[in-house]
Amino acid sequence: MSSSSSSLRFILPTSRIQSSNRRKSRSLTITQTLTTPSSSSSTTTTDGVDESRLEPRVEKKDGYWILKEKFRQGINPSEKIKIEREPMKLVVEDGIKELSQISLEELEKSKSTKDDIDVRLKWLGLFHRRKHQYGRFMMRLKLPNGVTTSEQTRYLARVIKKYGKDGCADVTTRQNWQIRGVELPDVPEIMEGLLSVGLTSLQSGMDNVRNAVGSPLAGIDPLEIVDTRPYTNLLSQFITDNSRGNLDFTNLPRKWNVAVVGTHDLYEHPHINDLAYMPATKNGRFGFNLLVGGFFSPKRCAEAIPLDAWVPADDIIPVCKAILEAYRDLGTRGNRQKTRMMWLIDELGVEGFRSEVVKRLPQQELERSSEEDLVQAQWERRDYFGVHPQKQEGLSFVGLHVPVGRLQADDMFELARLADEYGSSELRLTVEQNIIIPNIENSKIGKLLNEPLLKDRFSPEPPILMKGLVACTGNQFCGQAIIETKARALQVAEEVHKLVEVTKPVRMHWTGCPNTCGQVQVADIGFMGCMARDENGKICEGADVYLGGRIGSDSHLAEVYKKAVPVKNLVPLVVDILKEKFGAVPREIEEED
């Protein structure tokens, strides 16, 4: 496939054409009132929006998109930092090399260079861990569809191995790698190394498009609707301009997520994305219905809603471009809690937003949504752990449980070896922070299952309460996290497992703060870090407990069940919840003689 291609053609397998009821739009409540520069005369659109509101707020100067002077009143600090110096100049003008040669002590002396290390470097995927790992950075990679190679995995392992106990890696809830312990002087060399193995960290943080998510079983699932890899690869190539940086979309009002659905299982979690492509046919053509606006934030969480639009498979890039341009041009840049794309949709109305998208399409036409959804509404989500046959005869994949997504360098070296020895030198990452080894000859399965890594670390058959366990970074590394999450998530799950028995997996998600990187709102049981008071009134680490999150065609966001529970009280609370809500029964405990 040509890297410059902007369209793809696919032949729809007729055996996969299945219809289901189209998801109905939820009602919207407009909750934000926005002010724009006054005009001596104004008119309103058919949607009741003042025409002056539809003036683009950004303009292109010297190759970069910047906020117009007239719209700079009341903007947030991040917007001011972008105006003071364009973050992408660290890439385009090779500013990172100069920055990496200056000591942190010198960089701290100037607000501008301090903003470089704490904010602008996020455009390069680098996050300074000022609070807990001063002088070290987390680096986030782009990994479309979660597909990575053994060569890439070894390279990342070598990088973190250098940093000893400070170096490790995480599988994220957006199906990509994050590596930790990175030091600024090493960054130019690391970035060159990433390019040499086909990776990039560009545009993976701040006001950019995040990793393009797809089915972790793409191309190997006997029951898949469509192989999502060509689409997610094309989206990633477009968004990053083939890892060079796409300056048209590096100044969004806020971050922006995209997913392409390929299975009935909705492994991709489409309803929490700003744009989700949902497979559907129309008049015998294969394409996608579009969902828009899904997001999480401390102040508001919203599920994506139908745009009432369908695009043929060839047109995924033009519509993505048009939606991004509408958001970039019209999105507000004041309170950061009210700048995600759904706020703009609320303000303009779905039809008003859709009209702005249409204006930005090459032909200024966008078909209405199709009634021929291919995702089956009544579908029991399959478990990908363990051994499963692929659509390719004689091959299987093995799903491995990576406890809360954390890996050390030696784990990554060993995974790369296993992918080479047993599979096709490929690994798949999942949004639940686990790993799949595909393309294994059935004759090799027995030997693979006896490998020490699978016996001791990454089990293909984890305990049932571990299967759906997800945790963000927590305060071990993240300065915004209020509590420790990864070790605590494992501890609570292990203790609860000793006390009760459940018959089906229960998805438990942990997040260290209200930013909800651990996505507690999609969990059966969610834990959001907060401060609480113990029985003596003393302040202690705690969690707000959420219940009722669902993923799939009947998706639903979890709601708060109990606030500010001290962490030491979580085990008995979870035991009670599992008994009352999930049919758990007490385990029989054998007494010692």
TrEMBL record:
InterPro entries: NIR_SIR_4Fe-4S (IPR051329), NiRdtase/SiRdtase_haem-b_fer (IPR005117), Nit/Sulf_reduc_fer-like_dom_sf (IPR036136), NO2/SO3_Rdtase_4Fe4S_dom (IPR006067), NO2/SO3_Rdtase_4Fe4S_sf (IPR045854), NO2/SO3_Rdtase_FeS/sirohaem_BS (IPR006066). It catalyses: 6 oxidized [2Fe-2S]-[ferredoxin] + NH4(+) + 2 H2O = nitrite + 6 reduced [2Fe-2S]-[ferredoxin] + 8 H(+). The keyword tRNA processing does not apply. Its cofactor is siroheme; [4Fe-4S] cluster. Its EC number is 1.7.7.1. PANTHER family: FERREDOXIN--NITRITE REDUCTASE, CHLOROPLASTIC (PTHR32439). This is Ferredoxin--nitrite reductase, chloroplastic. It comes from Papaver atlanticum.
